């Protein structure tokens, strides 16, 4: 079949005739080369050009439709990702930045003419905040007031004793390993309840620091905290799902969580795995002497400090660690 851009053009040739043996006139056969029917280009180039343009346009539309179909398929697959799969992705991204810190602190207590001294061992979680080995932890074992709260000592009783704390050693454990890296204390911030360690020798190890993002928090914000279980459980990652249930402005801007995590010093993350705040504790700005609140206690409350308040402290600690 001829193409649309071609037409059949045929010419006729007069066929000679001759008498056969019986005396009848018959047509003489022509050779095959005498056939003059052959396809010739159309005499209308405008139609050919229009057909070619239409073909290109149809091809482009088909390609565009195919691309949109692929994008839609990818979007549907991402949307169809199960909550369990999203949780695994979050933990896999964040957990390498969460470490276990073992600390030894010398505790000296003097009360009523007697003194007592001992070395207390603690284990807590921390977060890597720089590639060169700066780790953020809670300062609860380094300040007397936080230590008293940690040991369930009433503040009124604390005024009657002389309590001194002296950190002796810090060791950092990565992920689920048994190897320990020695670290030293480089900075503390008693107002935010944070402390910072610097690993002395990484021995060529590559670290993955936490990624911070100043994402505004509000009432009802869903957050996640990734910590680690104790040595007896092989330091496996442990995920907690949290929610902001109150926003306070005194004594500082902070966000109250729906549950107590006991993980001061650790970041909280959004669903994408970016750190948007740090867990700490705050005490009420004022205390009433003649009124007891039956709904809430007068002690410290666990909260989340926004990254905007914590980032400058982290940067100063990193600079101090590098200067040493």
Layout of secondary structure:
Blueprint: E1 6-9, E2 17-19, E3 25-27, E4 38-41, H1 45-79, H2 83-94, E5 98-111, E6 114-128, E7 134-138, H3 144-150, H4 155-158, E8 162-174, E9 181-189, E10 194-199, E11 222-228, E12 237-248, E13 254-257, E14 267-269, E15 275-282, E16 301-306, H5 307-323
Antiparallel strand pairs: 1-4, 2-3, 5-6, 5-8, 6-7, 7-10, 8-9, 9-10, 11-12, 12-13, 13-16, 14-15, 15-16
Kindly name the structural category: alpha+beta
Cα radius of gyration in angstroms? 40 Å
**Low-confidence runs (pLDDT<50, min 5 residues)?**
4-12, 33-43
Supply the number of helical segments. 5
Q: Can you offer a commentary on this structure?
A:
With 324 residues, this protein is of the alpha+beta class. The chain has a domain at 93-286 and 299-323: Thrombin, subunit H (Beta Barrel). Helix content is 23%, strand content 36%. The protein has five helices and 16 strands. The chain has a six-stranded antiparallel barrel. Strand 5 and strand 6 (114-128) form a beta hairpin. It starts with 5 loop residues before the first strand and ends with a helix.
């Amino acid at each position: 079949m001829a193409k649309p851009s071609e037409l059949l053009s045929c010419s006729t040739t007069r066929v000679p005739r001759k008498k056969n043996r019986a005396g009848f006139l018959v047509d003489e056969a022509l050779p095959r080369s005498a056939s003059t029917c052959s396809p010739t280009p159309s005499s209308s180039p405008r139609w050919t050009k229009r057909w070619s343009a239409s073909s290109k346009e149809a091809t482009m539309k088909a390609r565009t439709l195919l691309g949109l179909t692929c994008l839609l398929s990818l979007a549907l697959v991402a949307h169809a990702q199960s909550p369990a799969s999203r949780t695994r992705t979050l933990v896999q991204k964040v957990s390498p930045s969460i470490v276990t810190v073992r600390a030894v602190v010398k505790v000296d207590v003097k009360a009523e003419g007697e003194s007592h001294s001992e070395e207390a061992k603690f284990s807590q979680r921390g977060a890597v905040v720089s590639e060169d080995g700066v780790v953020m932890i809670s300062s609860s074992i380094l300040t007397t007031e936080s230590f008293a709260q940690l040991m369930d000592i009433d503040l009124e009783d604390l005024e009657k004793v002389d309590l001194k704390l002296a950190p002796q050693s810090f060791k950092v454990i990565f992920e689920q390993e048994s190897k320990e890296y020695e670290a030293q204390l480089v900075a503390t911030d008693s107002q935010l309840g944070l402390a910072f360690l610097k690993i002395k020798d990484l021995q060529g190890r590559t670290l993955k620091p936490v990624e911070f993002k100043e994402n505004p928090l509000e009432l009802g914000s869903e957050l996640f905290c990734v910590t680690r279980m104790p040595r007896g459980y092989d330091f496996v990652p442990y995920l907690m799902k949290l929610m902001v249930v109150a926003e306070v402005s005194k004594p500082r801007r902070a966000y109250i969580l729906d549950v107590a995590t006991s993980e001061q010093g650790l970041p909280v993350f959004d669903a994408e795995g970016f750190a948007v705040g740090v867990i700490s504790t705050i005490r009420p700005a004022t205390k009433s002497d003649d009124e007891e609140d039956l709904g809430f206690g007068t002690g410290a409350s666990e909260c989340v400090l926004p990254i905007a308040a914590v980032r400058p402290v982290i940067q100063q600690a990193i600079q101090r660690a590098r200067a040493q």
